[in-house]
Inverse folding.
């Protein structure tokens, strides 16, 4: 497998009213094709900034970012983002929200019928065919997030970027969606980077967990490989000593070595 | 304005509470009354009775308000002999509205023609203001440079009293009616420019991020994100503009003459026909209220979430 997404010596400074604020310092990370990588850290450690840099929504102060061998110079449909607050357009139906993305990527190569089929397929993938004609205001938070995922996947991105995708959901809905996401990712084989603050979520879904030190000037503290076999079952893992060991590793990193004074 | 919305809200809560009363009654019904056929008429009388109560609760407060207003008016007119009371005014109104579309030359036309003439001027002036103001608002809201460029001009011209524009209009157009339309145009364009610009600049960053990630074209950003997102603000601007236009038209027509509600008020003042002036005040108020309500209905159509 190739190194697919690469960050080389990436630093990020923000200009604020109180002067310059160094959010990230010397981030080096390479992600293989088809890999699921989670970025975990305390709030304010700049993990979302890393994701926005890969998405191209931000430009690094110094350092280089590559995706599939090309330098990242702005946002592009090959790197789809699922936002924490779903960011669906409230005046469009779920299908229209997905179609907007499909149209952007495939309008040059496919006719309208094919694009509508893609839209329907994406909604079916997340189990929302029945809600296609509903507006985001009429469906639950979990369903909105699923539409967000469908919109991202419908673009057939090379890299899927998830920014705390389930952070705003209740625990039960979150668990359901995590299981669904595992199934979808197994099917699509898409390279994925997920920002999270949920230790269980990180261990359950990831191939590797990138643990970040606290900001300012945050950087990568440790990278933990999660060598649990797939498909993973939430209930089986609850009793699994290796799963609990990995979970303990992340917790120790977050609460012993890099505890944050609240 | 706020009084109306409060009324609607309290109506909503009243309706809800009435509904719960009905459903409770209906739910108790099968337990309380065993034979099935009796159930239906009882529910129906319940519904009719509660319908009457809703209507009463809804109608009573405004009725009291209007009655208070009319009695104050009667009291004042009783004290000052020049001011006609409610009853002579009502009789006069019946007379005026019995033949609204008569025409006795250019200076003596029915109330209907006067209303239509005023509405037409407002329509043309306001329509042109919308045609120019709304796109201008979009441009100002979207591009920082344009916003900075237009800010001093707008801040300078916006506070100017509408009628100060009338001489300029008379000078340029050399006719009264276009000058009145020009005054409507100048005074009603600002709320639309400003509110549209604010709406566009307040588009949530999340939506703009979506646009950036999807790499949407400027046209798609406009049609799918900016326009729908700014629409509620735009509608507020339109409502404020119509309000201003309707306020200004009476004053403008008083000065320009010809036909129209404002001219009619001035003409009847010269004839010392005070009943007709009071009728005109009511007509202006009612037409303004109807315009406002129509735009509120229209705005509701574009509310999301």
């Amino acid at each position: 497998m190739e190194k697919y997404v690469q960050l080389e010596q990436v630093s990020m400074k923000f200009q604020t009213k109180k002067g310059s604020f160094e959010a990230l310092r010397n981030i080096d990370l390479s992600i293989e094709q088809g890999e699921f990588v989670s970025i975990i850290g305390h709030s304010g450690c700049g993990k979302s900034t890393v994701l926005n840099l890969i998405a191209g929504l931000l430009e690094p102060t110094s350092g280089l970012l590559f995706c599939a061998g090309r330098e990242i110079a702005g946002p592009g449909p090959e790197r789809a983002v699922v936002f924490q607050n779903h960011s669906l357009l409230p005046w469009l139906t779920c299908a229209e929200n997905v179609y907007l993305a499909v149209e952007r990527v495939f309008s040059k190569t496919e006719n309208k019928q094919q694009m509508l089929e893609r839209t329907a397929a994406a909604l079916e993938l997340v189990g929302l065919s029945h809600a296609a004609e509903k507006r985001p205001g009429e469906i639950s938070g979990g369903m909105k997030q699923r539409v967000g995922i469908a919109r991202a996947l419908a673009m057939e991105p090379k890299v899927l970027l998830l920014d705390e995708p389930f952070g705003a959901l209740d625990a039960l809905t979150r668990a359901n969606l995590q299981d669904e996401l595992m199934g979808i990712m197994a099917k699509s084989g898409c390279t994925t980077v997920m920002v999270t603050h949920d230790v269980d979520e990180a261990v359950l879904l990831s191939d590797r967990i990138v643990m970040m030190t606290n900001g300012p000037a945050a950087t990568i503290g440790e990278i933990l490989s999660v060598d649990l076999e797939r498909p993973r079952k939430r209930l089986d893992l609850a009793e699994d000593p290796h799963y609990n060991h990995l979970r303990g590793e992340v917790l120790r990193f977050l609460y012993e070595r890099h505890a944050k004074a609240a | 304005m706020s009084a109306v919305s409060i009324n609607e809200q309290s109506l909503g809560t009243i309706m809800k509470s009435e509904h719960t009363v009905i459903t409770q009654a209906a739910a108790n019904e099968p337990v309380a009354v065993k034979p099935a056929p009796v159930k239906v008429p009882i529910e129906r009388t319940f519904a009719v009775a509660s319908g009457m109560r809703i209507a009463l609760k809804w109608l009573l407060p405004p009725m009291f308000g209007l009655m208070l207003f009319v009695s104050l008016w009667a009291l004042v007119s009783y004290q000052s002999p020049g001011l006609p009371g409610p009853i002579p005014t009502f009789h006069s109104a019946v007379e005026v509205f019995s033949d609204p579309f008569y025409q006795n030359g250019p200076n003596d036309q029915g109330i209907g023609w006067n209303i239509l003439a005023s509405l037409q001027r407002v329509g043309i002036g306001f329509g042109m203001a919308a045609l120019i103001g709304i796109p201008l608002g979009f441009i100002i809201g979207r591009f920082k440079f344009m916003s900075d460029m237009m800010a001093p001009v707008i801040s300078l011209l916006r506070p100017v009293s509408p009628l100060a524009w009338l001489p300029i209009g008379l000078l340029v157009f050399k006719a009264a009616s276009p000058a009145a339309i020009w005054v409507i145009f100048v005074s009603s364009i600002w709320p639309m420019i400003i509110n549209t610009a604010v709406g566009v600049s307040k588009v949530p960053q999340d939506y703009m991020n979506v646009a950036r990630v999807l790499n949407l074209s400027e046209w798609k950003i406009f049609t799918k994100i900016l326009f729908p997102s700014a629409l509620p603000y735009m509608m507020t601007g339109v409502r404020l503009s119509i309000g201003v236009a309707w306020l200004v038209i009476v004053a403008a027509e008083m000065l320009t003459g010809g036909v129209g509600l404002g001219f009619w008020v001035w003409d009847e003042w010269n004839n010392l026909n005070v009943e007709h002036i009071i009728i005109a005040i009511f007509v202006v108020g009612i037409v303004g209220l109807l315009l406002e309500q129509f735009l509120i209905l229209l705005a509701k159509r574009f509310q999301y979430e």
User: Anything to note?
Assistant: The longest helix of chain B spans residues 36-79. Chain B is about 85% helix and 0% strand.
